[in-house]
Amino acid sequence: MDGQQQTMDAEKTRASAWFRALRDEIVAAFEGLEDSHAQGPFAEAAPGRFEVTETKRASDDGSDAGGGLMSVMRGGRVFEKVGVNVSTVYGTLGAAAQKAMAARGVPGMDSAPRFWASGISLVAHMQNPHCPAVHMNTRMFWTPGAWWFGGGSDLNPCLEYDADTAHFHATQKSQLDPHGETLYPELKAWADEYFYIPHRNRARGVGGIFMDDRNSGDWEADFALTQDIGRAFLPAFVPLVEKRRVMPFGPAEKDAQLVHRGLYAEYNLVYDRGTKFGLATGHDANAVLMSLPPLAKWV
Fold this sequence. Notes:
The mean pLDDT is about 90. This protein has a single domain, classed as Coproporphyrinogen III oxidase, aerobic (oxygen-dependent coproporphyrinogen oxidase, 3-Layer(aba) Sandwich), CATH 3.40.1500.10. The protein starts with a helix and ends in an 11-residue tail after the last helix. β4 and β5 form a beta hairpin. α3 packs antiparallel against α6. The strands form two sheets. It has a seven-stranded antiparallel beta sheet with strand order 1-2-3-4-5-6-9. Strands 7-8 form a two-stranded antiparallel sheet. Helix content is about 40%, strand content about 25%. By secondary structure, the chain is of the alpha+beta class. The chain has nine helices and nine strands.
């Protein structure tokens, strides 16, 4: 094994371990929110806990192709359904995935369609309609011809509060500014474009940050940026939950929440790149579709 390969293998190990550590931190924080919810709607319910399931990626020849952990909480005091998935998968890309990667300009897809991918993916749907739904993911992808990072987080309230939107964006900006003051506006604009639903002519939520195919040529710098995107999530989101989870609501607010969830489901099933990649590469379908809400409606 040459030195370059050893270096990349070590970098893969570091990235995979960090995504798992972030998963553990978020799971603990979310269970802490369940425990601390002592007043307001659903406070009399039992605090929710994550159910953890090991996932496996299916390979055509039955060989080891990696997997991960699917952690899902349902019916808690604060979270109606939340999933925090982490995975490290590898193998050979199928024809559809190869074609998609080649269209994005990834080199080597015709001659060496091998890949390695690791990351964390999170979607939270809340009990109280005043609490915003949220999405976050960070990931690293490798092929013999390239590597890159991606990820971000975005807020998806059915009942919008300007103060919540401002806090969410300001927290992300504070984490990104040390990497360059132009970075936050660039990733915010990317999120606004990526999380747009063309057939509805509207955004999925109130935005956030998003990046993909991040390869500046400096692996350490790009990994540090990816870590800070992950680190921004809890301080951006948790204070909003703590503020809104105690607010009373009625049928009109719940109806607005269910309609907005329908919008969220449409986006994830029609446009989301991660959903398409996960299903195309044989990853556990339940883990890939974890993002879907438990209940939704269409008008």
